[in-house]
Structure formats: C-alpha cells, structure tokens
Design a protein that fits this description.
six-stranded mixed barrel; Barwin-like endoglucanases; alpha/beta; globular; 28 strands
Length: about 750
C-alpha cells in the first residue's frame, strides 16, 4: 500500500479552501486544511472534511440509471445514451426544440466541466426554455451590476483584509463562508478586521452567528433593505458627505439619485425598516468618514420583492461614500482567466447588458442573461400549446426543493414525457428522470474555480489535477455533457462525437481570440495554438482553462514578447498550493463595459421601479402579521449534502425559529409542533423559541424536506425536515430580475401539538 499526500481545492462551496488529502493508494484516509494554500492558509469547514463520506455514500449513484415505470435499473453508458437518443430527439422533431427545458443547479458553479460545457449543451439543444438556480439566488445582483458596470460578474467585493468598517446586510458568512465574494476563512478575516481596531456591523432580522460575533447587530424588517439604504443615501446627500473618490468623473446619472433621495429621509424610512433615524444617520457618516469602509449585501438583499433595487443601492452607497474601487473599500477582482462575462474593456466602453430580448410563453416574463425565471417553469410544463415543455434536462439541481410552489413543480415533473438528469443522487427532482447520468468521484476530476475566482477578495489561481484514476464504470463529466450535446445536435451518442464537439468548442474559442483587436495573440495561427494546448494528449475542459489562463491578465500569451514567465496550466500544476497574484487594485475605468464608458448609476429600469413601487411602499406599516425568512447552517449546502451523517446528525436544525412574544400569542412553547401556513401551502415542524429573531419574523432553513416518495437518500430521509418552499409563492417575483421572493413571505403560525403535553 502506497501512502501519499495530495493537494486540491475544495469544490463544495464558494470559499475555495485548500485541502491536504492523505491517501493509501486511492483510498482517502484523512482530510486536513492545506496550511500552505496561498488563499485559505489551512482553514477548513466541516463540509471539506466530509469529502470521503460524500464519495463513499452508499446512496450515491455510480452507474447510469434507467427507469421503467417505478423500477430503476443499472445500465451501461452506451445503454443510457441509447435510451436518450431513442426518446429525446423524437420529441424535439415532433414539437420543436423549445419542447425541451433545461435547469442548471448551483453545484455547477463549482464544477469545471459544467462551467466550460454548459453553453455547448444549451446551444446544441437550441431551446429558449433555459432556467437555473440564479433566479432563486443572485440574479438581482447580476442585473444591477450588469446595468451599472456593464457585465453580470462585474460585482464589487469587500477588500476585507485591508478594511476598517464593514457593514454586512442579508448575509451570514460564519455559516455561508461568503457568497458572491470568495473569501476562505471569512470568519477569521472578520476577526482580524476587528483585532486591528475595525468594526463589523451586521444588519439582519436574525441574530445569526455572524451577528453574534459583530460589534453591532441591527434588526431589520424583511424586505426593507432598499428603504434603509435609500435613507443612508438621503443622509449622504443632505449632509454634503458625498465624495466619489476614485469614481470622480466616472459616474453618469447622479442627478437622478439626487432627485429620488428626498423621498427617503431617515424619519420616514425608520418606521418602515425598524432601524431608528439616528442610527441611519450615524451609519451614513461612518461610511463617509472611514477611509477603508464598505457595505456587503448578499442573499437576503436579493431574495425579496425589491431585490434588484436593494442590490443596486448597496453599490450606490459605496460609490457616494467614496468606497468603491479603493484599497480597503469595495473593489473589483482581476481574475487570472480571460472571460467575456467579466468587465475589462480597456477604456471602459462596451455594449452593456440588455434584457427582455424574448419572453416566456405563458406569463410573458422577460429573459435575464438568457434564462427565464424558474418560478414560471411549472407554467411552461403544464400549459398546452406550441412551445410547451415536454422534456427536461437537469444538471446538478434540485428545483423541487429549491424553488417556489414545490408541490406544483413536483406534479409538473411527473407529467413530462421524458427527463434526463446529470446528478449523483436520486433526489426529489431526479426521481422523475427516465435516465440519470452520474458524475464520477470528486478526486477523478480536474478542478479550477472559473466563476468564483472572479469574485475573490485576493487575486489568486489554483488548479487541482485528477489524483485518482477513473474506474471502468465511471466516465469524465465533460464527456457525459458532450455526448448528450451530440445526441441533440444530431451527431449520435458515441465518445467520438463528444470528442469532436470538444475540439470544435476549443477551436471556436481560440479563433475568436486571435481575431480580437489588440490581443497579444492577435493574428496567431489558431491551429498551432490548439496543437500547443493539446500536447501530451490533453482533452476536455483543461484545454480551455489553459487557454484562458495563458491569454488572461497574468498569462504567458503563448510566448509573446514581454510575457515570459506568465501563467499557464503547467505553472499551476507546478504550484499545488496555488499562485498568489496579489491584493486587489483599483480597476476603473477599464473594468467597465457600459455604452457610456462610465458607471451608469441610475439605470432607467431601476429608477422606474423606485418611483412605481419603492416610494409608494413607504406608506406600509407592519400590521401584526408574521413574515418568513430562511437561514443556513455551516454544515449544510442547500439540499444536496443532507445525506452525509456526520453533517446532519446532532441537534435538529430544521426548526421554526420564533420570537418569545410571537410564540406566546400563538400558544407555542419551545419544542412544540407548529403549523405554518402561507397563501400557497402549509408545513408542520418543531418550534424553536428564541429572542435571536426579530419579533414579527419566523425562520425556516432552506433545502430540507426529504420525505417524498421515490427518493433514495436514506440519511436525508431520517433527518427529513420540511420544505420551506412549499410556503413560497411563485407569483411573487422581483420584476427587474425575475428573482423569486423567498424572504418576507406572509405566514400564520399556530400550535399543533405540545411536546410537553
């Protein structure tokens, strides 16, 4: 038996922590944090230590599965693809390409094959019916960033390692490890901020772990983040505190902000959001007077009725207080991989973003970055007519648990003619599939965080090569995706067809780059570059990543003069702990891709939403109703890691948190079984009475509810919990982004059975 130590980046959440893996031959025996990792420096959360259990899970699907009626059968890869080829193309030929829908789940953002080949699969399908977890998550931030800065991932992140004053809204980084902000050991970074004399303020309707560790915690009524933030804007303008700093001369539309702000004085905003006027003024002054400061807003600011406006106002406040694009403020990452989805147009000018180029068939909802709101997926399956979805492809997603009106979507999936899923479990969604195509074990795959390093608080690059061989029943994930793409493209299902698509995808990327004006590789022979990338028999997504690294900001540009010693995949392979590319630096204006070449601070659609919805909502007052918010746990990652015993055992985490005053009114004691109703559904679960939640607010964690028939996840079923999305209303969406409203849902709560009776 050969003992060895390997290093790789954890692929299980956005933190990108380095792992030190101890193996006996190919058996993983120990997981530790990699102390030499240039980014995480040894930090590791419980999810990373569960890597072995994830791969060894007896319920994990290891070979393709075909369903006949209610019975599942193991199949070979050729048999599975033959089944798909026999059943999916005929539906497309009969009813058109829009008869197939696609749903992409969150784990794909951590998966190299998905990130590189999702577009190939979608383009091969040729359907307009594209959906993803983005519209129950971060789409408002993508929309507001796109409108202001010109690209979906041009999202400012906190320069937390040099910051002295940080306001966190709608986020719990002690549990999430950060989101839309890649920062391994986020808790440690916050504690170091405090140790150097800085201040952390958390604004949240729950006293989360992050709030407990903060210097100050402010309760806020769910759904009123935009009101609070506009109150801060009002103070900055009224007290002459605006100083654009590095944004001076680069902001277009400031007069519109000045026109809207008088509607939001602190005295008007305070009774709406629950934060008093003096506190609003104090925070505005602090943000403006502290040299290294900023506001970071995340999922709580997105998944609400004013999600896009709230996401926009986070950046507006940072701009007006002079905290955008300066050290210790909110800054833009310069990732190692070249990408069209990240700003970087030289002089700042670009095409910007456009939405609503097409609309959904049933509800006429606009597309956002090429996809429709997932809340309308059930509509598109249920409603007859041309373009009705008759077949579905899901990739690493579980929308039956993660999207609104869950029971309705469950029934809609059951009505499909055909469904194929790429997944490692038979879960609440994939139980409806006719074919499940599994992913191989984690350690057989190469890994590079294409999306997450574009949002990192430090510029880094780290590639993890495969460290164990594929078994005979395993297939590379990229080959699975491309064989599926080849089928719907009419090229057959053979591995050779997938290889041809792989070559075509690479050649397309290279040809586009060598014709780009001003590129260091402009005019180079594309065939020669493809040959260089394919040396030593390399195939799959690594070739694309190598090209993106070599043509990126730190790349070797294939030997172009002046770029000697630059990055390539080979350089990263020689540096298993990663390459540190340095602290964030100011990037304006070159990071922009807007038509004006400036920050377009007052996008027309957002201004219209402020006037038509936000200002009238100032007259609302809480009337004694309860509203529901979600929450997350460090050991949980949405729905898909609940089948690992070491992560879910112990004290139940799927509980109804309720304030003592609200519990008394409902006749509920701690531990009682409570019934929670919304307009669309009802769940029953144990109550957890706590003053750690704001009065008038109750909380149920997201991603649970593993008690459906047909699911094969034994541990998750034992710790099933309830599905909070039975309570969320598919009719409620942020109109600017199509994002579902998952926080601030009106509910009623009543005692069902006393645990003390």
């Amino acid at each position: 038996m050969t003992k060895r130590i390997e290093y790789r980046t954890c692929p299980l959440c956005e933190a990108t922590c380095g792992l030190e893996l101890h193996l006996d031959d190919d058996e993983l025996t120990l997981v530790r944090g990699d102390k030499e990792d240039v980014f995480s420096a040894g930090y590791l959360c419980p999810k990373g230590t569960a890597l072995k259990q994830l791969d060894a899970d007896p319920n994990r699907i290891r070979t393709p599965q075909i369903r006949r009626g209610d019975t599942w059968y193991d199949a070979t890869w050729d048999e599975a693809f033959a089944e798909i080829e026999a059943r999916l193309p005929p539906i497309m030929e009969r009813d058109g390409r829009d008869a197939v829908g696609v749903y992409m789940g969150n784990p794909g953002a951590h998966n190299l094959a998905n990130l590189v080949y999702n577009r190939v699969l979608n383009q091969s399908l040729g359907t307009k019916n594209l959906f993803s977890a983005s519209t129950v998550d971060q789409m408002p931030k993508q929309v507001s960033s796109g409108l202001m800065f010109g690209a979906a991932l041009t999202v400012p992140v906190a320069d937390i390692d040099r910051m002295d004053y940080l306001v966190i809204m709608g986020a719990n980084p002690y549990a999430s490890n950060g989101s839309l902000m890649t920062a391994p050991d986020f808790p440690g970074r916050l504690e170091r901020l405090q140790a150097r004399g800085g201040t952390v303020v958390v604004i949240d309707p729950r006293r989360s772990q992050s709030a407990e560790k903060a210097d100050e915690h402010l309760f806020i009524r769910p759904g009123t983040d935009a009101h609070f933030l506009f109150g801060v804007v009002n103070v900055l303008l009224a007290e002459g505190l605006v100083s654009l700093g590095n944004c001076e001369g680069l902001v277009d539309g400031l007069e519109e902000i000045e026109r809207l702000a008088p509607s939001f004085p602190p005295e008007v905003v305070a009774p709406v959001c629950g934060i008093d006027a003096d506190t609003i003024r104090s925070m505005a002054r602090k943000l403006a007077s502290t040299d290294r400061a900023g506001i970071y807003g995340r999922i709580g600011t997105c998944t609400q009725e004013f999600g896009t406006v709230a996401s926009w106002l986070v950046d507006v406040v940072n701009i007006l207080a002079g905290n955008l694009d300066r050290e210790g403020g909110m800054m833009f990452t310069l990732p190692a991989t070249a990408s069209a989805s990240i700003g970087g147009g030289g002089d700042g000018k670009g095409r910007g973003v456009r939405f609503g180029r097409r609309h959904s068939r049933v509800k006429q909802l606009p597309e956002f970055f090429g996809e429709y709101p997932v809340a309308t997926l059930a509509d598109e399956i249920e409603t007859p007519g041309a373009g009705q979805i008759k077949a579905l492809v899901t990739v690493a997603g579980n929308p039956v648990l993660s999207t609104p009106d869950s029971d309705r979507l469950d029934a809609a999936f059951a009505s499909l003619e055909f469904m194929v899923s790429i997944d490692i479990y038979r879960n609440e969604t994939t139980k409806h599939a006719d074919v499940i195509l599994p992913a191989p074990r984690v350690l057989t795959k190469g890994h590079y965080d294409l999306a997450l390093y574009a949002l990192a608080v430090r510029n880094v690059a780290n590639y993890s090569p495969p460290i164990i061989e594929l078994r005979g029943d395993e297939q590379p994930e990229w080959e699975t995706m491309l064989r599926l793409a080849a089928i719907v493209a009419g090229q057959g299902s053979s591995p050779e067809a997938a290889a041809a698509l792989d070559d075509f995808a690479l050649v397309s990327v290279v040809q586009k780059a060598v014709t780009r004006s001003g590129s260091p590789i402009e005019g180079r022979d594309a065939g020669e570059l493809v040959d260089e990338l394919s040396k030593n028999g390399r195939r799959g997504p690594e070739r694309v990543v190598d090209f993106m690294l070599r043509t990126g900001a730190y790349g070797d540009q294939f030997g172009a003069p002046g770029y000697e010693g630059g990055l390539s995949l080979a350089v990263l392979e020689a540096n298993p702990h990663g390459v540190d590319l340095g602290a964030l630096k100011p990037r304006l204006p070159e990071v922009l891709k807007t038509p004006s070449g400036k920050i377009e601070i007052a996008p027309e659609a957002i201004v219209a939403d402020v006037e038509s919805r936000l200002i009238p909502s100032l007259d609302r007052r809480a009337n004694g109703e309860l509203v529901l918010v979600g929450r997350r746990d460090l050991r949980s990652n949405n729905s898909w890691m609940h089948n690992i015993e070491i992560l879910v055992k112990g004290k139940p985490r799927c509980t109804l948190q309720i304030h003592p005053d609200d519990a008394i009114r409902a006749g509920i004691a701690d531990g009682d079984l409570a019934r929670v109703r919304s307009r669309v559904g009802m769940v029953e679960l144990a109550a957890e009475v706590t003053d750690g939640i704001m009065s008038g607010v109750v909380s149920i964690p997201h991603g649970w509810g593993h008690d459906m028939k047909g699911v094969d996840m034994e541990v998750a079923e034992r710790y099933s919990g309830v599905n909070s999305n039975i309570l969320t209303d598919g009719e409620l969406m942020d109109p600017l982004s199509g994002n579902s409203v998952l926080n601030g849902i009106p509910v009623t709560v009543e005692a069902l059975v006393s645990a003390h009776a």
